[in-house]
Amino acid sequence: MSVAASIAKLHSPLRELVSTVADAHHGKSEKDKAEVSEWIEKVAAGDAARPEAIQALDAQLTPKTYIVSNYFTAADVALYGALHPTLAQLQPAQYYAHPSVTRYFDHIQHKPSVRAAAAALAPAFDVVPFDLDGAPSIERKADPPKEKKKAPKAEPAASGSAPAPAQKKAKKEAAQAADEDVNKDTGAPVPQQKKEKKEKKPAQESKKAVAEDAGEPVPSMIDLRVGRIVDIKKHPDADSLYVEQIDFGEETGPRTVVSGLVNYIPIEKMQNKTLVGVCNLKPANMRGVKSFAMVLCATHKDGKDAGLELIEPPAGSEPGERIYFEGPEFENAEPLSQLNPKKKIFETIQPGFTTLESHEAAWVNPVTKQAHRIRTAKGVCYSPNFVGASLS
Length: 392
Known about the structure:
Elements: H1 3-8, H2 14-20, H3 30-45, H4 54-61, H5 74-87, H6 92-96, H7 99-109, H8 112-119, H9 165-180, H10 192-210, E1 224-234, E2 242-247, E3 255-259, H11 267-270, E4 274-278, E5 284-286, E6 289-291, E7 294-295, E8 297-299, E9 308-310, E10 322-325, H12 345-349, E11 353-355, E12 361-364, E13 371-375, E14 390-391
Antiparallel strand pairs: 1-2, 1-4, 1-10, 2-3, 4-7, 5-6, 8-9, 8-14, 10-13, 11-12, 12-13
């Protein structure tokens, strides 16, 4: 069933709300369209926002910004509208029990397009106030390290026969273990306490590695750096792509970067341009050319057809300079060496990227609504012409 047909099944005024939110996508692929339609069908049937279903919905939304894929769709508007009557009646202790649903609902209800559509249908979808500052902190634990499977015991060798290879290995390991139990210089036994301390060290190192990107995604996990285009040409097999060589101040030299900017920025305006690069995405093949970073751009609030431009670092910036997010929790944090695509860290953070009234680039926390400007030590990165733009 098409998304439009599913929307027609919604009750008024939710049907009018979903129909009039201009930037709510119906799906960028056939798979996404089917999923958007499926969610709207659930809402129409009254199944998506039942009180007993909210706990399961909370778990489903924990790693997500939007209910389908990583962009805003009509399914989000429908789900927001279906949740509205329930969440409007909850007391703080009740909505604190569903942090992901509350965070998701608050993010959707404050989208400008949703507020504009809701204003015409007031008071059905008035803003639901949440005391998010008083919310208890959420404890997140790293997954415990997996237990190693024990090797099966070798069968004893027949009497008088030569030792089997497994038995030889076991004897060798036993001898090594015995050697480790004595001081190599004095021959005295090693105290058990020291031995245990020695054995625990690898486990501690393993735990630290597991925890590197554990927990909820935060913007400081993203590695942003100043870069400068030193060479640019059109992709040999794709008319809409540039292939750039960008200097990020690395000893290994410039990185090859592929970007889909041909239809938006003339090549002469890209040459020798200083820009902001996302440097810890997993390298990706773009029509036969591997791209090792991403150029951060601002898309006009009315969409790509209205314009797209590069985010620029402050004047005097040099390749390789660190770019970070303002705020004590982010300024001194080290980015991850590489973002794990399965954890969708960039996709989770990206919807909060925008340009402020001052044209300054920032990440707006969807929960606290606090803007954290994106900057270097010299100043704040910015979009020359756009306000309220999306960054990607």
